[in-house]
Design brief:
Elements: H1 3-18, E1 21-22, E2 46-48, E3 55-58, E4 63-67, H2 70-73, E5 85-86, H3 89-93, E6 96-97, E7 100-103, E8 109-112, E9 117-122, H4 125-131, E10 138-140, H5 142-147, E11 149-150, E12 154-155, E13 166-171, E14 180-182, E15 185-186, E16 188-197, E17 203-215, E18 221-228, E19 234-239, E20 246-249, E21 253-255, E22 260-269, E23 280-290, E24 293-295, E25 300-301, E26 305-308, E27 316-320, E28 329-331, E29 338-347, E30 353-362, E31 371-378, E32 381-387, E33 393-404, E34 409-418, E35 425-426, E36 428-429, E37 436-440, E38 446-447, E39 461-462, E40 470-471, E41 475-477, E42 481-486, E43 494-496, E44 498-511, E45 515-527, E46 539-545, E47 551-556, E48 572-576, E49 580-582, E50 585-595, E51 603-609, H6 612-615, E52 616-621, E53 636-637, E54 641-644, E55 649-652, E56 673-676
Parallel strand pairs: 2-5, 4-6, 7-10, 9-11, 9-12, 13-24, 14-26, 28-41, 43-54
Antiparallel strand pairs: 1-23, 2-3, 3-4, 7-8, 8-9, 13-16, 15-38, 16-22, 17-20, 17-21, 17-23, 18-19, 18-22, 23-25, 23-26, 27-29, 29-34, 30-33, 30-36, 30-37, 31-32, 31-34, 32-33, 35-41, 37-38, 39-40, 42-44, 44-50, 45-48, 45-49, 45-51, 45-52, 46-47, 46-50, 51-53, 51-54, 55-56
Length: about 675
């Protein structure tokens, strides 16, 4: 490929990945970019433009690579949604799009376009350099490389073929029929829309505009939502109607090539419809934002629904549950199964209700990776949660639903394991009352949960008219933790006098953040025959090695100091005052030393810490800088090693026996000696 062709290709790719097709009711679109603050950009930064949707990673050579979807984003543990920098359109446009990459440790270079197919550049480095720039090759991990399906190779002189994305939009034949809607009901289906992707490429929808139409007032709607037509889960957040009767969504909806995805435009009705009873309302899909070519005629209008304030339907109210923590708390990294929030829901007297889903809004500063095993618990049964693409919403589907009999109550609690995030916070709120999905069993309406007082909710309280609906207590994640355990990587063995003998191993288990240990004592516990002459000072050149065999501390000689009253007089320690940074995880360190000749046969030695809480003298979190006290406060000892001291016995063999010897024989054996060690 010529350099001219290369430039054209880059231009084409840039246009393909950034061009946005917008269909409006009037046929005219007006885009108002958001103001972006000036930011400093560096190699590896994540950025997005005023559309607030497409996320790119940039390099220092002026190239940007589109992160295609949340699944790819989640393959990189260091990516966080909070780290994405918003820039103006001019800055976005100043970077050239590149979809060329190679995996770390792999020399093969690939190109993957919007069709999700990776194609290998089957050419020499010289041929590649003749048509491309090595600076546009991004480095990805193996997980992303293997995520894409494999297509045909790209040979020298060939222009990569980019799949064409096409989307057909239509009103579903089973769109909801005209119905009567009651006040304070939720998730009322108005319009069902089919999104069909062509066979050329997956289609990503990055924006939708819903318009309230019909002879009705906007105030009859508390909010409007989009539901997945397959499992009826909510897509994105609920939105309020603006001054021109519209609600705008920027949530990403992906339609796999050759498939159809159905979505439902739904409404959450106002608490009271007294002023709107008899009105006819409909919800219309007015516009779609996508990079694909669109077929179909917009707007798509669903059937009109009649609003009614006289229907008597069920109700549900919420209050604090018995498993709620009841106050702000500070918890260490490594805390397992901590209850972050608990609510009690009570059904009214009209009908039994079924709780189908609960969505908790993690409004604290903790990252998704800081929490594991986030579960919702009801009657002792745990329900797994799924986390939203931005890492802020945890949704639990309660199987076939949790039935609450009329006039009765059930408790719903959320718990999690805290695995990281020192000095960050966790707050498991419920942002909107409609984030609790409850359905009346008699009349079949979804209900808006009530309870609380007017105004902003205090910690541990509910609001009847503000967001968040439920404001949970905050949990502050404490600094990292360090635990010293016995390691079985060095079992009990016989060791000899001499250098570099393994005298034990310990596991340093770190959670939350890397920990810098700058003062630490390792104790030497001896059981010896000669208690007068054999002490810890007879073990010298004591060195600590990591799992890869690298010396990280020492060598230092043992000291027979009997620092601690629970040890014998000949026991002692070695004190390391050189900084050692221990990463998060389980780190095995092996202690080796030179065993002196004063030891007797069958003497024993073991290394450890009589109390790690005091023997790790100085430890601080690398991230937080906070002082850390090691655990446990009881003894931790490695496996015992038995010294087999050298001994040699010499004796005369019984062969050859006494005999006469003739003169002149060469090489005759006169005697044999036996050396027994």
């Amino acid at each position: 490929m010529s350099k001219i062709t290369k430039v054209r290709l880059q231009k084409a790719v840039s246009i393909f990945t950034t061009f946005t097709t917008i269909m409006w009711l009037s046929g005219v679109a007006l885009l108002t970019p958001l103001a972006a603050k000036a930011v400093v950009l560096n190699e590896g930064d994540l950025v997005r433009g005023p559309d607030g949707v497409k996320v790119y990673i940039i390099n220092a050579y002026g190239y940007k690579r589109h992160i295609y979807n949340p699944a790819v984003f989640g393959m990189y543990g260091h990516f966080t949604w909070n780290s994405i920098k918003t820039v103006d359109q001019a800055t976005i446009d100043s970077y050239t799009v590149s979809d060329i990459y190679r995996a770390n440790g792999d020399t093969k270079v690939y190109q993957t376009a919007q069709d999700g197919i990776k194609r290998w550049f089957d050419m020499t480095a010289e041929q590649f350099a003749a048509s491309y720039n090595w600076n546009q090759v991004f480095i990805v991990n193996g997980a992303e490389r293997d995520y894409y399906s494999t297509g045909s190779s790209i040979t020298s002189g060939e222009t990569p073929v980019v799949g064409t994305a096409a989307l057909t939009v239509s009103l579903a034949s089973d769109t909801p029929a005209t119905a009567i809607l009651a006040e304070n009901t939720a998730r009322n289906s108005f319009t069902k829309v089919n999104l069909t992707a062509g066979s050329g490429a997956d289609v990503t929808v990055t924006g939708l505009t819903i318009q309230r139409t019909g002879q009705a007032d906007d105030a009859a709607f508390a909010s409007v939502i989009i539901l997945d037509g397959t499992d009826m889960t909510q897509i994105g957040l609920s939105q309020s109607l603006n001054s021109i009767h519209e609600a705008n969504y920027t949530d990403t909806i992906t339609v796999a090539k050759g498939t159809t995805k159905s979505i439902i435009l739904a409404g959450n009705m106002a608490t009271s419809l007294d002023s709107y009873t008899g009105q006819l309302a409909s919800l219309t899909l007015k516009s779609i934002t996508t990079s694909a070519t669109i077929s179909g005629s917009l707007p798509l209008v669903g059937n009109q629904m009649t609003l009614n304030s006289n229907l008597s339907v069920g109700s549900v109210t919420s209050a604090i549950g018995s498993l709620d923590p009841g106050a702000d708390a500070t918890k260490n990294v490594g805390t397992i199964g901590y209850y972050l929030a608990g609510i009690k829901m009570t059904a009214g007297s009209v009908e039994d209700v079924t709780v189908e889903q609960l969505k908790f809004n993690q409004s604290g500063s903790a990252a998704t990776s800081d929490l594991e095993n986030v579960k919702v618990i009801v009657d002792g049964v745990e329900y797994a949660t799924t986390v939203s693409s931005d890492g802020k919403y945890y949704n639990a589907v309660t199987g076939s639903g949790i039935v609450i009999g009329k006039g009765l109550s059930k408790e719903f609690s959320v718990k999690a394991d805290i695995k990281g995030g020192s000095q960050r916070t966790i707050a498991m709120d419920i942002y909107k009352a409609t984030d609790v999905v409850v359905k009346g069993n008699l009349y079949g309406y979804h209900l808006t949960v009530g309870g609380g007082s007017a105004g902003a909710a205090a910690d541990g309280a509910f609001s009847s008219d503000n967001n968040p609906y439920f404001n949970s207590y905050d949990v502050t994640i404490n600094k990292g933790t360090l635990r010293v355990d016995k390691s079985n990587s060095s079992t009990s063995n016989n060791i000899a006098e001499g250098s570099s003998q393994v005298i034990g191993s310990l596991d340093f288990v770190v959670e939350g953040e890397s920990i810098r240990v700058s003062d630490m004592r390792i104790e030497l516990d001896l059981e010896v025959t000669d208690t007068t002459n054999t002490t810890a000072a007879d073990i010298t050149l004591i060195t600590i090695y990591d799992k890869d065999g690298n010396a990280v501390l020492g060598p230092l000689d043992g000291t027979a100091n009997a620092l601690y009253g629970d040890l014998d007089a000949g026991d002692g320690s070695v004190r390391y005052q050189t900084a050692l940074v221990i990463p998060a995880g389980t780190n095995t360190y092996t202690v080796k030393g030179k065993i002196g000749t004063d030891f007797s046969n069958n003497d024993t030695v073991r290394v450890g810490m009589n109390t790690p809480a005091t023997r790790v003298v100085t430890a601080t979190g690398v991230t937080t800088g906070e002082a850390i006290t090691a655990t446990p406060a009881t003894a931790t000892w490695a496996n015992t090693q038995t010294i087999k001291a050298g001994a040699l016995a010499v004796s005369v063999s019984t062969q050859p026996v006494s005999q006469n010897v003739a003169r002149g024989i060469n090489g005759y054996t006169f005697a044999k000696f036996v050396f027994d060690g």
